[in-house]
Write a structure and sequence with these properties.
Radius of gyration: 17 Å
CATH topology: Vanadium-containing Chloroperoxidase, domain 2
Structural class: mainly alpha
CATH architecture: Orthogonal Bundle
Number of strands: 0
Strand content: under 5%
CATH class: Mainly Alpha
């Protein structure tokens, strides 16, 4: 663990603003295992009659969640020892699973519904930051999780594009 990483986490926790505690708790809970992303994807899929949106977001969520759990076990980084606003997870800290699933799902959602790209990425960033704010991750955990999640999302988008192109060529 690097000094700056610990210092930034401690600074964020020491400078919490009371009225923001509940919104950041809510963001952390909403981001658990990609729950909010699945709800948004379901709404988009129903409103646009495109089931592939839900399937692709669910795939991104599952891949990011399962693989970050494995990476956390591999790296074994302990959680910050600060006052938390939520229960301290029993899993390891690096990389952040919330950040990974949020960015994976946001990238897929933004690619399949371009009008949602900026709001989705903004929500992903807020969920990722919530993990620092509530005191259960270091900045490097969140940055790595966000970058990893974006890569997972891009891979899922690429697979969806490949399958869609393949389906169109078989339909001819």
């Amino acid at each position: 663990m690097t000094g700056w990483d610990r210092d930034v986490e401690s600074w964020i926790v020491a400078h919490r603003i009371g009225f923001l505690n509940d919104p950041f708790r809510w963001l952390t809970y909403a981001g658990t295992q990609g729950a909010i992303w699945l709800v948004v994807a379901l709404a988009v899929a129903v409103s646009t009659r495109r089931a592939q949106v839900l399937v692709a977001v669910a795939a991104a969520d599952l891949v990011a969640d399962v693989t970050t759990t494995g990476l956390q076990a591999l790296f074994g980084r302990s959680r910050p020892l600060v006052a938390t606003l939520v229960a301290r997870p029993h899993s390891h800290s690096f990389p952040s699973g919330h950040a990974a699933t949020s960015f994976a799902c946001a990238v897929v959602l933004g690619a399949l519904s371009p009008a949602l790209r900026r709001p989705a990425l903004g929500l992903a960033a807020l969920i990722a930051f919530s993990r620092l704010y509530v005191g259960v991750h270091y900045p490097l955990d969140v940055l790595a999780g966000s970058a990893y999640g974006a890569l997972v999302g891009l891979a899922v988008v690429r697979l969806v594009s490949s399958w869609t192109a393949r389906g169109r060529s078989h339909a001819r």
